[in-house]
Design goal:
The structure holds two protein chains of two kinds.
Chain A lengths: L8 H9 L5 H13 L7 E4 L1 H13 L11 E5 L26 H8 L3 E6 L33 H8 L5 E6 L5 H7 L2 E4 L19 E6 L2 H11 L29 E5 L9 H16 L3 E5 L7 H16 L17 H12 L2 H14 L4 H22 L5 E5 L15 H5 L6 H5 L4 E8 L5 E8 L4 H15 L11
Chain B lengths: L4 H10 L6 H18 L34 H6 L17
Helix pairs in contact in B: 1-2
Classes of the chains: A alpha/beta, B mainly alpha.
Chain lengths: 484, 95
C-alpha cells in the first residue's frame, strides 16, 4: 500500500483487522514520514524505537478485539507518559520524566494504541499559535510560515501533515478547536468532566478538558469513545452514561433544532467567515434540521471573564514549579532567591504574564473586584446557554474569527492574540461540548471551520450533526508536502 | 485604573518571579492593556448573581486512604534537580 499515512484511523483499523497491514508496517510509515517532516517541528520528543518494539509485540500476538489495535498515535506533550519525557512546552519541565501515566493516554494504550511521540504545544497550553513553546514554532502544513493554531499546535500540524493518524489535545479556551480550524481537521472538546484530567499538566482546572483531533468525524467519535470514561482519580470526573459514540453515529439529524446566536456576529468579522456560516446554515437545512435564531446576550463578556478565571487558576496551579522536587532549577543565594530565579528563567513571557494577572486578581483587595466578579459573570454566561437549550438541541457558530495567520504576526499584542478564542471560550466557561469541523477555505486558500456546540453530556448529537454536515461539505485538505 | 511599576514589582514578589526594571516596564504595559480589556465586566450589574465556583455539579467523593503507586520512589527522586538518591536537596535555609 503506497500511502498508508493518508488513511484515516477507521481505515487503518480495518486494514489491520483484515491482516492487509501490520502494526509494524503502519508504525514504520508514520515514523518515516515524521523523520522527513522535522521542519514542521511538531515533535518535542519522539518515541519511535519504543513504538516499533511495541508494534512488533502486537503483531506477534494481535488482539483484534481492541478498539485501537496496534495503531501508533502521537499525543500533545501535556499528557504525562510513564517513563517518557513530558515538558508541557516549557523549559521548567525540560527534563521531567513522569513516573506515572495520564488516565486518558492509559485508556488508549489499554485499547491497543502505541505511543509514537510527544507533540509540541504552547507553553503550559497558554497560547493560540504555538509560538509560546520553549521548543520553538510549529509550521502549519497548510503553508509556509503559518501558525498551526494553539495551544495544541503540534497536534494539529502533525495530524494535518499525516504524521499521526489521530491525536489528542487539550482545550481550556479553544486549544483543540482553533488549531483544528487552522489546519482543516476535526477537533472536539468534550463536556467538562467527561475525560479525566488525571495526569494532564494543569493549566486552569475548571476549564481544561482533553479531546480527540482527527481527519474526520467518525475517527473523532471512536477516539472519544476510548478516552471518555469516569475516573476516580479526578475529583471532577463525572459518572454519567456515555454513548457508544462510534456505533451510534448517524447522519439522520432530521427535526433537530440548531440555534444561530446573533451575538456571534462580532464587529469586524471578515465577510468570508460570515459567508462560511451561511453555508453551514444551508447545509444544516439540507440535512433536515431546523434553524432557530437565538440570543446569548453575555457573549461579549466571555473573553474578559476567561482572562480572569484562567490566569487565576493558572497562577495557583503553577505555584508548584519551584525548582525543588523536579524540573529546571536556577541556583540562588538562598531558598527564596532560588525560587525567584528558577521561575523567572524557567517560565516564558506569556506564562509569566498570566501568572502575574492571576496573582493580581487573587490578591488581597482585588479579589472581589476581579475574581468574584468573573465568577458571577461566568454564571450569567452559563445561564445564557441553559436558557437557549430549552429551545434548541445544538448551536452553530464559526470556530475562529480568521484563518491561520503568519508566524510573528500577533506576538507583540497579547489582546489581539486572545481574540482568536472569541467563539470557543464561552463553551469552556459553560463546560459544554463543542466540535470544530473544516467547512471551507478563505480567499488565501486556508481552511476555515465551523463549530457545533452541544448540551452538557450530549457529545453524540454534535457528532451526528458534524457527521451529517461533513458528508455534504466533502472538505479536502490541500497539502503539498512543501516542507520535504 | 492603571497598574504601575510598583504594583508589578509587588505581584512579581508574591508570585516569586524575579523581574528587572526593563521587564517590569514591559509587563506593566502588557498588563494595562489586558486589564483595560477585562474592565468591560464592570458594565454588568452582578449584585444578585451567585458566583459559579464549579462547573461540574458533583459532590466531592470520599475514598479509602490507601496508596496505589508502588516503588516509584527512585523514579521520583531521579527528577530532582540536585542529585541525591535519598532526599530532595535545597539551598541552606537555617543558619
Amino acid at each position: 500500500m503506497s500511502d498508508i499515512t493518508k488513511l484515516s484511523l477507521n481505515e487503518l483499523i480495518k486494514n489491520i483487522r483484515n491482516k492487509k497491514l501490520s502494526s509494524t508496517e503502519i508504525t514504520n510509515s508514520f515514523i518515516e514520514r515524521s523523520e522527513k517532516s522535522k521542519k514542521l517541528n511538531t515533535y518535542v520528543t519522539d518515541n519511535f524505537s519504543n513504538a516499533l518494539a511495541a508494534a512488533k509485540i502486537f503483531d506477534e500476538k494481535p488482539n483484534m478485539d481492541l478498539k485501537l489495535p496496534g495503531i501508533p498515535i502521537a499525543v500533545k506533550d501535556l499528557f504525562c507518559t510513564n517513563g517518557v519525557r513530558t515538558t508541557a512546552g516549557s523549559n521548567i519541565l525540560n527534563n521531567f520524566i513522569p513516573p506515572y501515566e495520564s488516565t486518558v493516554t492509559q485508556s488508549m494504550w489499554d485499547e491497543g494504541a502505541i505511543l509514537l511521540g510527544k507533540l509540541n504545544c504552547d507553553e503550559f497550553a497558554m497560547g493560540s499559535s504555538n509560538e509560546t513553546s520553549f521548543f520553538g514554532n510549529v509550521q502549519n502544513p497548510i503553508g509556509e510560515n503559518l501558525v498551526p493554531g494553539g495551544s495544541s499546535g503540534g497536534s494539529s500540524a502533525a495530524l494535518a501533515a499525516n504524521l499521526t493518524p489521530v491525536t489528542i489535545g487539550t482545550d481550556t479556551g479553544g486549544s483543540i478547536r482553533q488549531p483544528a480550524s487552522f489546519t482543516g481537521t476535526v477537533g472536539l472538546k468534550p463536556t467538562y468532566g467527561s475525560c479525566s484530567r488525571y495526569g494532564i499538566v494543569a493549566f486552569a482546572s475548571s476549564l481544561d478538558q482533553a479531546g480527540p483531533m482527527s481527519q474526520n468525524v467518525k475517527d473523532a467519535a471512536l477516539l472519544l469513545e476510548v478516552i471518555s470514561k469516569f475516573d476516580n482519580k479526578d475529583s471532577t470526573s463525572i459518572d454519567f452514561k456515555r454513548n457508544k459514540y462510534s456505533s451510534e453515529l448517524t447522519n439522520n439529524i432530521k427535526g433537530l433544532k440548531i440555534g444561530i446566536p446573533n451575538e456571534y456576529r462580532v464587529e469586524g468579522m471578515p465577510k468570508e467567515i460570515e459567508d462560511l456560516w451561511k453555508t453551514g446554515i444551508e447545509i444544516i437545512k439540507d440535512c433536515g434540521a431546523e434553524i432557530v435564531d437565538i440570543s446569548l446576550p453575555n457573549t461579549k463578556y466571555a473573553l474578559p471573564t476567561y482572562y480572569i478565571v484562567a490566569p487565576a487558576e493558572a497562577s495557583s496551579n503553577l505555584a508548584r514549579y519551584d525548582g525543588v522536587k523536579y524540573g529546571f532549577r536556577s541556583e540562588g543565594e538562598n531558598l527564596i532567591d532560588m525560587y525567584e530565579k528558577t521561575r523567572s528563567e524557567g517560565f516564558g513571557e506569556e506564562v509569566k504574564r498570566r501568572i502575574l494577572i492571576g496573582t493580581y486578581v487573587l490578591s488581597s483587595g482585588y479579589y472581589d473586584a476581579y475574581y468574584l466578579k468573573a465568577q458571577k459573570v461566568r454564571q450569567l454566561i452559563k445561564k445564557d446557554f441553559d436558557n437557549v437549550y430549552n429551545n434548541v438541541d445544538a448551536i452553530l457558530t464559526p470556530s475562529t474569527p480568521s484563518s491561520a495567520f503568519k508566524i510573528g504576526e500577533k506576538t507583540d499584542d497579547p489582546v489581539s492574540m486572545y481574540l482568536n478564542d472569541i467563539f470557543t471560550v464561552p463553551v469552556n466557561l459553560a463546560g459544554l461540548p463543542g466540535i470544530s469541523i473544516p467547512t471551507g477555505i478563505d480567499n488565501k486558500g486556508f481552511p476555515l471551520g465551523l463549530q457545533i456546540i452541544g448540551k452538557p453530556f450530549d457529545e453524540q448529537t454534535i457528532l451526528n450533526i458534524a457527521y451529517s454536515m461533513e458528508e455534504k461539505i466533502n472538505f479536502k485538505n490541500d497539502i503539498t508536502d512543501w516542507w520535504m | 485604573m492603571t497598574i504601575d511599576l510598583k504594583t508589578v514589582k509587588h505581584i512579581s514578589k508574591l508570585a516569586r518571579i524575579s523581574t528587572d526594571e526593563k521587564k517590569a516596564n514591559k509587563l506593566a504595559n502588557d498588563l494595562n492593556s489586558i486589564f483595560k480589556f477585562i474592565e468591560a465586566l464592570n458594565e454588568l450589574d452582578t449584585e444578585k448573581v451567585e458566583p459559579l465556583t464549579s462547573i461540574a455539579d458533583t459532590k466531592l467523593r470520599l475514598r479509602e486512604d490507601k496508596f496505589e503507586a508502588n516503588n516509584i520512589r527512585d523514579k521520583i527522586l531521579k527528577n530532582s534537580p540536585d542529585e541525591n538518591k535519598d532526599y530532595f536537596v535545597v539551598p541552606k535555609v537555617v543558619e
